[in-house]
Batch of 2 targets.
Target 1
Amino acid sequence: MTNTTIAAQMAHRTIRAYTDEPLGEDTVTTLLDVARHAATSAFQQQVTIIRILDPVVREQVYLASGQPYVGGDRGELFVFVVDLHRNAVIRERAGVSLEPLERVNLFLQGVEDAVIAAQNVVVAAESLGLGTTYLGSILGDPRRVIEALKLPERTFPLLGLLVGHAAQEPQYKPRLPREITTGVDSYPDVEEHLEALADYDAVVEEYYDLRDTNNRVDSFSAQMVRALGMGPAAVVPALPVLHDQRLALH
């Protein structure tokens, strides 16, 4: 079963190169409105989206990310911020406790809001024929991003997103098979699907072998053994930053 929305979702690719054609203000407004209408945990709406237009600010986000395609001026750059500050101001003005906003639970609900809003934007953008790439890499230096965006306490820059007109046509990267990533009533036993995992590794190896951009030959399992948790965004001490922002204190 399919329709135009599902077809666009199934055709998702990460686009890291963009033309210099701007999106246009109507498109940007539409994408921001789509984000506003995303599902939100307990109607708390704990997300703020910052559109980056200042080249100086974008340079700081690029330095935090370390990814070359984040720099320059191609593609619209958005940062999705977990935002408990706004609700803190509302509660403070009402004279009630801010303690709930310091719980891990509330931070996780803000993370949910930010991720859902970002995915809404991706689906909408790709339905318009645009390219996108998520930038978890901005967590390589979250303090730099916090300073550059002048983020107050109780906020955290969770991820970035580039949206623009694609200047490349990458192949579709194969995903883990359904029997490995879904279960019915209980967690699927990985040991029962080792053959399917081996078949998937072979598919991934072929993907890298035939990919236009390099001659790399690699499997999914080999990447998980070699590279899991090794990137800058995966090793930076995030908890002290969260605590400094008065988030996830208990």
Target 2
Amino acid sequence: MKKEHLLCSNLHFYKAVLQEAVNWPECEAVFETFLYKTSDNCQKRLTVDVVSHKGHQWIKVIARNPIALHQIYKEGDTFGRRSIMDQATSYIEAAGQNLYLYNPPKVVFSFVNGVPEEMKAFLERFGILVEGKVISVEDVSISDSSTGSDCSGDVNFTSVPVHDQQDNPSRYNLCVTTMIAYVSSLTNGGCNKEFNEPLLNQQAEWERARPVKPFLDNLFSGKDLLCCATAVEDFKSIVNIVGGEEEKGRAAELLSRITVVPDLPFTGLRPTGKIKERSLLIFGTGHAHKAVTVTANKGFVQAAKQKGARFAVVIHESRALSECKEHQQCS
């Protein structure tokens, strides 16, 4: 095996992708596929190299030689490969149709070996953020271009700003699981009690390690809270049947802070094993009002994602009502 053999492989590209995944904050996924429709209504798939900032930012990694990039930009690719312009169009179209917290993700093209000046200016006119050392093509020696090498150097990492307001929604849509967790005795000082049920003991242990109520209080502070009518009625029914007196009092206080809105079911999915009709009502209502849904129903979120439906959500651990099942003696 010779060095040239490795330079002609995809290994340098995968190395660059891994470096980007490590360098960018809050990497959400690598090589994640998104669905989108083109202007002629044809459905396509786009695989994003790195999804960072929890989903706010999509990164396309380009590890090709800048001379080759410039030649393709000016003259086209005789081998039929997609040009940077084609990729830019796909990323912009897909980002506009796969919103994160109801805003398109920021698109970043990261050029590992440098980016020609003219190409950088072109991409920025598209609204794409460009990362990498800017290179004047005339300054690159003929020997560099004659090798055809795409070998990767160190990634010139530069943090690209992401708008803070995207991660600070003004209103939240509450799931039944969230309202139960909020009023549960477990999250309101009862996590040191003992229970006969293993599930409650496990949740009590989780609560001692990772308290849910402070997280939700901080999330809800200064925000508008809404909930669909069906979720409110189901929550009231559950609390009335299995809730203790203090849990019922906290439930009444929470409901006084919530604006109840009509059910607006999500019509893009059909009920299946983990996709229940009630969940379609709850998440559909949040989607219709452009409110981020707060939930412990991770199963639904994952099942919907597998079907191509991505909801704006904040996920927390589940907590059950426990007041009526507490032992008299604390542990």
